[in-house]
Amino acid sequence: MPDNFESFIQQHRDDFDVPGPSPRVWDALERELQESGKGKVVRLMAKNWFKAAVIAVLLVNAAALFYLTKNKEQHQQEVAALSPDMQEAKGYYTSRINEKLELINAYPAEELGLDSAARKELEVRNDTYKALERELKNNPGNERIRAAMVRYYQLKIDLLDKILEELHEKHVTPGQTKKRYEAEI
Amino acid sequence: MKASANNLNQTQIAENVVDRCKKGDVRAFRELYDAYSAAMYNICLRMTNNVSDAEDTLQEAFMQVHKNIHKLERDSSVSAWIKRIVVNHCLNTLRKKKVYFEEVDEVEVVAEEGVDEAQFTMTVAAVKTAIHGLPQGYRTVLNLYLFEAYSHREIADMLGITESTAKTQYMRAKEKVRQIVKQQNVIR
Question: In 10 A of CB A2, how many CB atoms?
Fold first, then answer.
C-alpha cells in the first residue's frame, strides 16, 4: 500500500517530467544512422572489394575501348606539342594516381589480395591508357577524346580512393572505430 | 503523440511504423523517436542525473533500438521494449562511472521511520532536489521502483543484487529523501 510519500509522487507524477531532449540528440542520431548505413555498404563491399575493383577497372577500360573503335583517325602527332593543356592535365593526374598507387603498394601483397595482373591494371599506363593516348595523338583537337581521357583519369583516381578506403577500413583497429555496448538486448 | 514516462502505455504510434522501421525507413524511425524520446529522455535524466550523460545515453539507446528493431516481435509492447533498452543503457552509463549496486546489510527499515510528513510541506521541486542529491545507488533503486514502476524483483535482477537488498535500498532512499525535504523546510 503506498505511503504518503509514494502517494505524493503518484499524484504529481507528470510534474516530475521535463520537456524532451534537445534537437541535437536527433541530429547526432541521424548522423550516426547515416554513417552506420555507409558502414553496411562498406562491409558488403569489403567482402568482395577485389572483385568490385577489377570489375570497375574492366568497365572503365571496356567503355574507353568501345569509344575509341568508333573514332579512329590517321594523323600521328605528339600530345605535348599539340595539346599542351592535356599535357598539363596528364602531369597532374599521373602524379595523383602514382601517389595513391604508392600508398596501395605499401600494403603487403597478402593483405592487398591483388595478383600481378590486377596490379598492372591499376597502373596509370595500362592498355586503355595507351589506346587513349594513341587516339589523342591522332586527334589532338577532338574534344570527346580529351574528355574521355580526363574521365579515365578521374575514374582511376576514384577507384584507387575506394581501394585505399577499403584497405584502411580493413586494417584499422576495431576499437578505434566501433562502439561496443556492454549490454546486449 | 509524445509520451511522458508516466503515460507510456497509452502512447500510440501508427500501426505500420515498426514494420517500416524494420525495412530501414528513416522517416518511420523518426516517428518512433518523436513518440518516445521525451519519455525516454526523462528516464535517462533521472538515472544519469545530468543533461549531457542523459542525451548521450538516449542517443546510444536509440541506436540500439534501430539496430535491433528487427528482433521486436509483432505482439510485443514497443514502449516496454524501448524502455528496457534505455534503462539498460542508463545502467551501463552508471557502471562506466564506477557506480556499484552492492549488497547492504539487511536491516529492516520501517516506513515513515523518524520523519513525520505532517510536520513539513512536500513539493515537487523539493522532492526533485532531494532525489538529485541522493547517492547514485539509492537514486537508481528509487527511480526504477518509484518512477519506472519496476518491481523489487526486476530491479534486483537488473542490478545483480538480491530482492531484499533492492527493497532495503529503496526504503533507505525514500527515508533519505524525506529527511532532505524536511531539512529544506527547516532552512526556509
Answer: 11
Dihedral (Cα; A108, A112, A114, A119), 10-degree rounding:
-70
B58 close to B44: Cβ distance less than 8 angstroms: yes
- Closest to B53 in 3D by CA, of B85, B97, B88: B97
- CA-based nearest distance A48→chain B, Å: 23
3-state SS assignment for residue A4: helix
Stated length of chain B: 188
Determine the Cα angle at B161 with ends B160 and B162, to 5°.
Answer: 135
Q: Compute φ and ψ for B128, nearest 5 degrees.
A: -60, -45
Q: How confident is the model at residue B33 (pLDDT cuts 50, 70, 90)?
A: very high
Lowest mean pLDDT among A26-30, A71-75, A140-144, B160-164: A71-75
pLDDT in tens, A47-93: 556 666 767 777 777 777 776 666 554 444 555 566 677 777 778 88
Nearest to A16 among B26, B41, B147 (CB): B147
Residue A28 sits at the chain B interface (C-beta within 8 Å): yes
- Residue written as cell 581501394? A163
Q: Which residues in A lie closer than 8 A to residue B85 (C-beta atoms)? A: 185
**C-alpha to C-alpha distances, A154 to A46, A92, A103, A147, nearest whole angstrom:** 22, 11, 18, 10
B58, B49 Cβ separation under 8 angstroms: no
* B9 and B79 Cβ atoms separated by less than 8 Å: yes
Q: B179 with B115: CB under 8 angstroms?
A: yes
Which among A17, A183, A185 has CB closest to B5? A17
d(CA B32, CA A54): 42
Asked if B8 contacts B81 with a C-beta cutoff of 8 angstroms, the reply is no
- Summary count for chain A: helices (H), strands (E): 10, 0
Mind listing the pLDDT tens digit for each residue in B51-109?
A: 999 999 999 999 999 999 999 988 888 999 999 999 999 999 998 877 666 655 444 44
How far, in Å, are B7, B31, B36, B139 from residue B80 at the CA level?
A: 12, 17, 11, 21
Task: Please give the sequence-ordered ranges of beta strands (E in DSSP) within chain A, or none if there are none.
Answer: none
